[in-house]
């Protein structure tokens, strides 16, 4: 059994997860939010309860969003740990480290292209697919005048998606650059 190939494949699968989820956190951190949007994010991070006018269905959706966020954070930390362990294991093998970063960067770049194409070509269908995957119970559709739709417009999510995609692109290019660096 060739562990180098197995770890290369595992690294290539986990790299897009790590880089896209890190991109999400970076973008959320630097994105200016309105006070009401901050209140929602505080609720999602379990810092506060809600004081704005919000329905029980919307609260239910936010609770589901919180669960997805916890799952994705756990996935990020677990994936990051494995990526770090793989890099540490091969730290003396500069050629293999280079391959890891090259394939991880290329895989993330491919994921980026797919993500941005989905956002640019048909954002609504991509948005719907995302919600069908992560919220199969269906509590994510609200009337246009609902609190959540008024607080987080489709433009907010389009902008957020593009910023995450661009940040992931930068991270993937850095990974490919690191691959070249380790060859020297």
Topology (elements, then pairings):
Elements (H helix, E strand, L loop, with lengths): L2 H28 L4 H10 L11 H34 L4 H41 L12 H5 L2 H30 L1
Kindly list the characteristics that best describe this protein.
184 residues; mainly alpha; 6 helices; elongated
Report the portion of residues in β strands.
Answer: under 5%
**Helix share, percent:** over 70%
> How many E strands?
0
Order of helices and strands: HHHHHH
Shape: elongated
Q: Count the DSSP helices.
A: 6
Q: What structural class do helix, strand and pairing data support?
A: mainly alpha
Kindly give the count of domains.
Answer: 1
Note poorly predicted spans. Answer: none
Q: What does the largest sheet look like? A: none
How large, in whole angstroms, is the Cα Rg? 19 Å
Give the N-to-C terminal Cα separation.
29 Å
* pLDDT averaged residue by residue: 88
Give a verbal description of the structure:
- There is one protein chain.
- By secondary structure, the chain is mainly alpha-helical.
- The chain has one domain (3-183).
- It is 80% helix and 0% strand.
- It contains 6 helices and no strands.
- It has helices at residues 3-30, 35-44, 56-89, 94-134, 147-151, 154-183.
- Helix 1 packs across helix 3 (56-89), helix 1 packs across helix 4 (94-134) and helix 4 runs antiparallel to helix 6 (154-183).
- The chain is elongated.
- The model has no long low-confidence stretch (mean pLDDT 88).
């Amino acid at each position: 059994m060739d562990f180098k190939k197995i770890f290369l494949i595992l690294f290539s699968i986990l790299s897009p997860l790590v880089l896209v989820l890190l991109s999400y956190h970076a973008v959320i951190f630097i994105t200016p939010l309105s006070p009401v949007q901050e209140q929602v994010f505080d609720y999602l991070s379990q810092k506060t309860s809600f004081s704005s006018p919000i329905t029980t269905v919307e609260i239910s959706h936010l609770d589901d969003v919180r669960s997805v966020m916890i799952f994705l954070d756990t996935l990020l930390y677990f994936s990051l740990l494995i990526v770090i362990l793989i890099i540490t294991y091969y730290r003396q093998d500069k050629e293999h480290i280079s391959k890891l970063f090259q394939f991880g960067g290329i895989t993330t770049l491919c994921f980026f292209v797919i993500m941005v194409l989905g956002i640019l070509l048909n954002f609504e269908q991509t948005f719907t697919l995302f919600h069908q995957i992560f919220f199969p119970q269906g509590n994510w559709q609200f009337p246009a005048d609902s609190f959540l739709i008024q607080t987080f417009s489709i433009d907010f999510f389009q902008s957020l998606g593009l910023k995450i995609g661009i940040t992931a692109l930068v991270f993937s290019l850095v990974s490919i650059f690191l691959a070249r660096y380790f060859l020297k």
